[in-house]
Amino acid sequence: MNRVRRSVLLLVLTVAVVLGVALPANALFSESVSPATATVVGTATVAGPTNVRVETSCTTTTTVIKRTYDSATNAQVGYQETRTTATATSNVESDSTVRTDNSPVAGQYTITRTIKDTYLYATARWKGSSSRGVTGYEMTAFLNGGFVQPIGTASATATSYSDGYDASVVDLGARLSMVTLTSYGWTAPGNMSNVVTC
To answer: In what order do the strands lie in the sheet with 175-182?
Structure first.
């Protein structure tokens, strides 16, 4: 077989092999495939506790710390601390310091620090959720701007709960409720209290 015939035969075989492999590959790319469809396996809802009722009160604790120093050496020569608590009608948060010279006697001075802090106490009562898998109820403050502040957790069988939190939440438009907790992670609040005040 001469060189020209061999070259032609090799060219024909090469074209046949290439076309034979390429055609099925092009067919695969041109196949239409149905999109995958989602299967709904089930839906569920969680019910919040019902008939939620919340009672609140506030107390302000005033702590007065007096430190007495020798005016000549600045060495501390006396210390006194008192603490009183009273019912509050508003949130009071303050911390102030005053120096009094020649007190309690000449040659001494006293630094008096006065700290006032108000605490909110809340008691909630409710009827339990009818949902499955309830693991407890969480007292929660719902604040302005969509912020949520958990306060404490009651058991799954509880229908009342008492706890407290710093009364600064009353300045943030807080509403309190009990939130249903479940074993599968879903939650739901009950009805909200009015805006909490002291």
So the answer is: 148-155, 134-142, 175-182, 187-189
pTM higher than the cut 0.90: no
Tally of CB atoms within 10 A around 108: 17
Reading the chain (198 residues) residue by residue, the pLDDT tens digits are 444 334 333 333 343 433 444 433 332 222 333 333 322 334 468 999 999 999 999 999 999 999 999 999 999 999 999 999 999 999 999 999 999 999 999 999 999 999 999 999 999 999 999 999 999 999 999 999 999 999 999 999 999 999 999 999 999 999 999 999 999 999 999 999 999 999
Q: Domains along the chain?
A: 50-58+120-189 (2.60.40.10), 59-119 (no CATH)
